[in-house]
Design brief:
The complex is a heterodimer of chains A (about 400) and B (about 260). Chain A has helices spanning about 25-40, 45-55, 65-75, 90-105, 120-130, 140-145, 145-155, 170-185, 200-210, 210-225, 240-245, 275-280, 320-325, 335-350, 355-365, 390-395, and strands spanning about 5-10, 10-15, 15, 65, 75-80, 110-115, 135-140, 160-165, 190, 230-235, 255-260, 280-285, 290-295, 330-335, 375-380. The model of chain A has no long low-confidence stretch (mean pLDDT about 95). The radius of gyration of chain A is 19 Å and the shape is globular. In chain A, helix 5 packs parallel to helix 7. Chain A is α/β, with parallel strands linked by helices. The longest helix of chain A has 17 residues, at about 25-40. Chain A folds into 2 domains: about 15-55 and about 90-205, Rossmann fold, CATH 3.40.50; about 60-90 and about 210-390, Rossmann fold. The N and C termini of chain A lie far apart (about 40 Å). The mean pLDDT of chain B is about 95. In chain B, helix 2 (about 25-35) runs parallel beside helix 12 (about 235-255) and helix 6 packs parallel to helix 7 (about 130-135). Chain B has helices at about 5, 25-35, 55-65, 70-80, 95-100, 100-110, 130-135, 150-160, 180-190, 205-215, 225-230, 235-255; strands spanning about 10-20, 40-45, 90, 115-120, 140, 145, 165-170, 195-200, 220. Chain B has a single domain (about 5-255), classed as TIM Barrel (Alpha-Beta Barrel). A 9-stranded parallel beta sheet of chain B has the order 5-4-3-2-1-9-8-7-6. Chain B is an alpha/beta fold. Chain B contains 12 helices and 9 strands. The chains are: A alpha/beta (about 400), B alpha/beta (about 260). The interface of A and B includes residues 22, 178 and 298 of A.
Chain lengths: ~400, ~260
């Protein structure tokens, strides 16, 4: 660790974060921040959240000793099984929390953005479970790529609204959700899916996802009597990563953030060949926060690329940008090929098909085991059923 | 002409266009025609890939301009080439300014004859560094207030803004609407005296413009309606719209019943 970590409790992580939003969104964000500040200390709210995490989402998830992978890598590897959360990914931890906050605020409608559809599905699930009208913004390009998740959302009672602006992918879906929110905030909560965006989203999403790290800490102490040497997580916006890291920030545990290396570190005028904002990005403002982003020299946002739709985002949460700059989190990359290697390895060694996102973390450990120490934890943020078509379509698999 | 000088002859009509749409080369001539048709201030948008405060009309216009080759360097060339008597205002998103460097941006503005800067995603809480850069180069930094801005915050924004205060007429994004809300009128009434008030977002007809001025605004901003006519190549209609809106607000100003104290 290269310095003391200090948070400006108002809105920022070091210089990162903030609220770079149109004035109309200022008041909805203030109201959300103040409702959340109140509720996070409210016993009734917390016990309701715990109830849904346990009986609806299926928590706690196991911390599983991966025997074959451990033998393969010559060290002890545990897997945090977020793939077993209802819906198939860690996303529900956050959507449940935010939907309960929205309920308390008297909102009747949820809106969300989605890229691959995982967060959209997790929002549609809580929309159905907690009786909200739910609308999910999704880029036209993504709708075409992820028809099955569109059907899942619709089956769960949500409307999927195609986004035709800009690059017609995740970043544009977020823009569109903010536009909707700025017109409809009185009855609507914007349920942002990752630990990015303007304050209070990065803090609130981190808090809801930190259940992953809290459980992990107890489980590893019980199993091994000590903390791990390292924790490996994939990073798109970064919610599964910050969720598992948060309770370990003050410990001597290496925190490894694996970003999407995509097809390489190159970029053209409009597109980057990766989704690696911590590794390849520069400081800038995207979706209401100062963070690391992929941009051209003039400040136009580049389209990102990854085989894993959940890592295909040209920004990253501001807290991770800060922790990386402080040297507390180590940013690394795994490209498409390494991710596919991880996907196949975990399936065959352990009988667990990981999401392509999580497969980046797995693939990285296969390639660089020496960095892990003797005892490592990999966050398996989701399951891979959604990715079978993508993987089948990929050559040489 | 400085912005504050322009407000000596109220009410003002402020027209917005996206610089570079349909092409960078077309922009100086468009500015000239809009000025000659009677606009008192021209806002020139710098197109951004992710214009979160804008509706479909300005989003599409931004996309066209980017495709046509617009970037921040071209922007300042085009704006310098637009030689008009009326004040020119920069409008654009903060990341574009941040990427250029605040000091260089403010100096580029001053050199190309820009009198004021509007940044819709930069609230006063985050604006201190840009404010200093703008002050160094004699450029006004204009802030926005919205119908849902609480009174204590409104007063803080009024303290921070220079040139005028941009009042957002309604919730949501830019774009043509038909109705005008009571909230807009309330907002105009809530602004403390001493700062000119310009109202924008959703104003597209002479009738709406007149209503806004009758409610006490010092200026009306018309954006998407201009952008839409430029997109359709209807420049004569654009000039006609500017003339009619200008006439409507002048009549509305004259008809104002003097308030008795």
């Amino acid at each position: 660790m290269s310095g003391q970590i200090v948070y400006d409790i108002n809105t920022k992580f070091g210089k990162y974060g903030g609220r770079f939003v149109p004035e109309t969104l200022r008041q909805p964000l203030e109201e959300l921040a103040s409702a959340y500040e109140h509720l996070k200390h409210n016993d009734k709210f917390l016990s309701e959240y715990d109830f849904f995490l346990r009986d609806f989402a299926g928590r706690p998830t196991p911390l599983y000793f991966a025997k074959s992978l451990s033998r393969e890598l010559g060290r002890k590897i545990y897997l945090k099984r977020e793939d077993l959360v209802h819906g198939g990914a860690h996303k529900l931890n956050n959507t449940l929390g935010q939907a309960l906050v929205a309920k308390q605020m008297g909102k009747t409608r949820l809106i969300a953005e989605t890229g691959a559809g995982q967060h959209g599905v997790a929002t549609a699930i809580v929309g159905a479970c907690l009786s909200f009208e739910t609308q999910v913004y999704m880029g036209e390009v993504d709708i075409e790529r992820q028809k099955m998740n569109v059907f899942r959302m619709e089956l769960l009672g949500a409307d999927v609204i195609p986004v035709r602006s800009g690059s017609r992918t995740l970043k544009d879906a977020i823009n569109e959700a903010f536009r909707d929110w700025s017109a409809n905030y009185e009855n609507t909560h914007y349920l942002l899916g990752t630990a990015a965006g303007p304050h209070p989203f990065p803090t609130m999403v981190r808090d809801f996802q930190s259940i992953i790290g809290k459980e992990t800490r107890e489980q590893i102490l019980r199993a091994e009597g000590r903390l791990p040497d390292s924790i490996v997580a994939c990073v798109g916006g970064g919610s599964n990563a910050i969720g598992i890291y948060a309770p370990f920030l003050q410990d001597k545990v290496e925190l490894i953030a694996v970003e999407a290396g995509g097809q390489g570190i190159g970029k053209t005028n409009k597109t980057a060949e990766n989704g690696a904002s911590l590794n390849c990005g520069t400081n800038g403002i995207l979706h209401g926060a100062l963070t690391k982003i992929l941009q051209d020299p003039y400040g136009q946002i580049l389209e990102s690329y990854s085989i894993a739709a959940g890592l295909d985002y040209p920004g990253v949460g501001p807290e991770l940008a800060y922790l990386a700059e402080m040297g507390r989190v180590q940013p690394t990359m795994a490209d498409d090929k390494i991710a596919l290697k991880g996907f196949k390895a975990l399936s065959q060694l352990e009988g667990i098909i990981p999401a392509l996102e999580s497969a980046h973390a797995v693939g990285y450990t296969l390639d660089s085991p020496e960095i892990l120490g003797d005892l490592a934890i990999i966050n398996i943020s989701g399951r891979g059923d959604k990715d079978l078509a993508t993987v089948m379509a990929h050559e040489n698999f | 002409m400085r912005i504050s000088d322009a407000f000596h002859h109220k009410p003002l009509l402020i027209a917005y266009i996206c610089a570079g749409d349909p092409s960078p080369a077309a922009t100086p001539e468009l500015v000239k025609r809009i000025s000659e048709a009677g606009a008192d201030i021209i806002e020139l948008g710098l197109p951004h890939s992710d214009p979160v405060a804008d509706g479909p009309t300005i989003q599409e216009s931004s996309q066209r301009a980017i495709v046509a080759g617009m970037n921040t360097d071209t922007y300042f060339e085009v704006v310098s080439a637009a030689k008009v008597e009326i004040p020119k205002i920069f409008m654009g998103y903060y990341n574009m300014i941040y990427a250029r460097g605040l000091e260089k941006f403010a100096s580029d503005c001053a050199r190309s004859g820009i009198n004021g800067v509007i940044v819709p995603d930069l609230p006063p809480e985050e604006a201190e560094p840009l404010k200093i850069a703008c002050q160094n180069h004699g450029v006004d930094l204009i802030f926005l207030a919205a119908p849902n801005t609480p009174q204590h915050r409104l007063e803080r924004i009024v303290d921070q803004t220079s040139g005028f205060l941009y009042l957002v007429a309604r919730p949501g994004v830019t774009g043509v609407r038909s109705d005008l809300l009571d909230d807009t009128k309330n907002l105009i009434a809530r602004v403390p005296d001493g700062i000119p008030k310009a109202v924008g977002f959703g104003i597209s007809t002479p009738e709406q413009a007149a209503e806004i001025v009758s409610a006490g605004a010092d200026a009306v901003i018309v954006g998407s309606a201009c952008v839409d006519l430029i997109a359709k190549g209807k420049l004569a209609e654009l000039e006609d719209l500017i003339r009619k809106m200008k006439l409507a607000i002048e009549i509305a100003e004259k008809r104002k019943i003097p308030t008795v104290c």
